[in-house]
Amino acid sequence: MKTNIINLLLLSIAIIISGCSAEQSTFVGEFMSNPSAIGAIAPSSEELAEIMVENIDPANSIVIELGAGTGPFTEKLVAKIPKDKLFIVENNTTFYQHLVKRFPDQTVLCVDACELDKHIPEHLHGKINVVVSGLPFRSLPADVATKILSSLKKVCSVNFKLIQFTYFKEPPLPLAESEMLGISPTYYKLSPNNTPAAHVWIYNPTIVADTSK
Ligand SMILES: C[S@@+](CC[C@H](N)C(=O)[O-])C[C@H]1O[C@@H](n2cnc3c(N)ncnc32)[C@H](O)[C@@H]1O
């Protein structure tokens, strides 16, 4: 994990030196101040954002976006999902303020994803069926990842799906965590032009074989 963060730090220094947009430099600045929570040196690309949302059925989905950052996935979700069925979560105050300005009509929650169940309206507990996550699960401390997944379990339906990207080849969630949540990963697609290239995985509830017959 340390090597991954050092590589991202070196890449971010290269981006600063080569010149970048105001949004990108905000992102690099936030990454420098808290590398393990931000987990990326640049906002995700349009290509990755398209892949993250293309599998969502707009007519039958109640969606939480976790770790929205500056909003590349949010932009695609807003175009697809009715306003009352989309909850955008970001705990970094710089990114939160940016999101509120960029999406003034949306529900943007400046809360820790560890406490989702306290902030998602109670009548929707058990009904959230899609989670689009930009959270850097591999660089977050293990206890934080566990708390986020426990909180998700409280608000999601039994047949929810979690769409998650990673820069690495392995599934994005540590195995113990996905087993705790009762979900299994399926590889979905590569976004080759993202910086760095990203892999998208979709987690669905694990099907347990019925051995009683
Ligand atoms: C890898 S960035 C992804 C940002 C954006 N989705 C994108 O793809 O460009 C991870 C984001 O997760 C947010 N984050 C990390 N831990 C969080 C937590 N516990 N609760 C809410 N957001 C969190 C970070 O602040 C950051 O914006």
From TrEMBL:
Keyword NAD: no
Name by which UniProt lists this protein: Ribosomal RNA small subunit methyltransferase A
Matching PROSITE patterns: PROKAR_LIPOPROTEIN
Keyword Transferase: yes
EC id: 2.1.1.-
GO molecular function term, any single one: methyltransferase activity
Alphabetized InterPro entries for the sequence: SAM-dependent_MTases_sf
UniProt keywords, alphabetically: Methyltransferase, Signal, Transferase
Membrane-spanning ranges: none
Listed Gene3D superfamilies: Vaccinia Virus protein VP39
Signal peptide stretch: 1-22
GN (gene name): rsmA_2
One GO-annotated biological process of the protein: methylation
